[in-house]
Amino acid sequence: MAAGLRATVLAPLVNLEARSAGIRAAITARNDLLATRGRAVADTLSLRAISDENTTLRQLLGLSARLQEGFVPAEVLPARGPEEFTLNVTAGSRVGVQPFLPVVTADGLVGMVETVDQASSTVITWAHPDFRVSAMSVDQDAFGIVQPHLAAGAERWLLEMRGVPFRAKLDTGTLIVSSGLGATYPRGIPVGTVIGELSTPEKWARTYLLKPAVLPENIGPVLVLLPGRGDRGVNGVWTSVAAADSAARAVAASGDSLARTAAFDELTARRAALDSLLADSLSRADTIGGGLTSRSAAAADSIRRDSLRREVTRRDSVRRDNDRRETGRRDAVRSRPPVRGR
User: Fold this and answer.
1) I want to staple 63 with a disulfide (CB 3.0 to 4.6 A). Which of 106, 112, 246, 316 is the partner?
2) Contacts for 235-241 with beta carbons within 8 Å, 24 or more apart?
3) Is pLDDT of 132 > 60?
4) Could you give the CA distance from residue 248 to residue 230 in angstroms, rounded to a whole number?
5) What is the DSSP string of 152-193?
6) Could you give phi then psi for residue 86, rounded to 5 degrees?
7) The pLDDT of residue 243
């Protein structure tokens, strides 16, 4: 009887229950699959973040090994307050941090210490409106002052190099480093690379747009250079960046020299072809007849006579001017009163 009821009266209900169980199992399996994929993506992102952090720490260790001494490592704390262009770091007056000390990473310059507490400090970054650094190109051909590019949108995170002499032209990709002028930033810290030239009303100087050496998303652990390290300088610390820039410039210069050589060879070949064509035309003109030759000879004689006449006239005018000066000098000597003796 039960089997008969399930097969007749309860058949729709049994089919609905089976269909509901299948849908529930499919939903559960999909949720499990989504959860598994989410965990896999989270693990991948965490691994990538760990890998990036390891790379940053390795680069910072390399920088500290090149510096050897005279610096304090610090971590960046979460931002506090509405100020967007400042950082809080875990290094204060207990470890010798003072205001106006440079803050760097393995990529280059981050900013400057503004205020100091016992266990923390506030750092203004290169995007802060009060940021200024005296900078130069790696080959020391151009000097200027680097400051934030106060524009709207994404260009707000760029830099400007102002006051560059008009005779100094910088190519795109040129590395800009601190010049060491002043008492804050030692010489040789990468600041940015040239993107292009900005048009300004100043006609006696150039202004260039720079891409910062340290991007905002890459600011992690930093090093604060102590006063003794800044006084000794940081020459040779960022040599890899400078060497790469100089190598790129050497390659570009070699390419330019090859281009100039090829252009010179082409110009020499064209001149030779023109000379040969001119010689052929002159020989053909000589073989046509003597009429043209006699006329050209007469024209040459008239030109020589005219030049001789002009030379004689010039000599006569020069002689007359000399005679006038001599006569004026004699008259002046004669008109002087005689000198009486005592």
Assistant:
1) 106
2) 235/187, 235/188, 236/66, 236/188, 237/63, 237/66, 237/67, 237/188, 238/108, 238/177, 238/188, 238/189, 238/190, 241/108, 241/175, 241/190
3) yes
4) 29
5) SGGGGG-EEEEEEETT----TT-EEEE---SSSS-TT-EEEE
6) -130, 160
7) 46
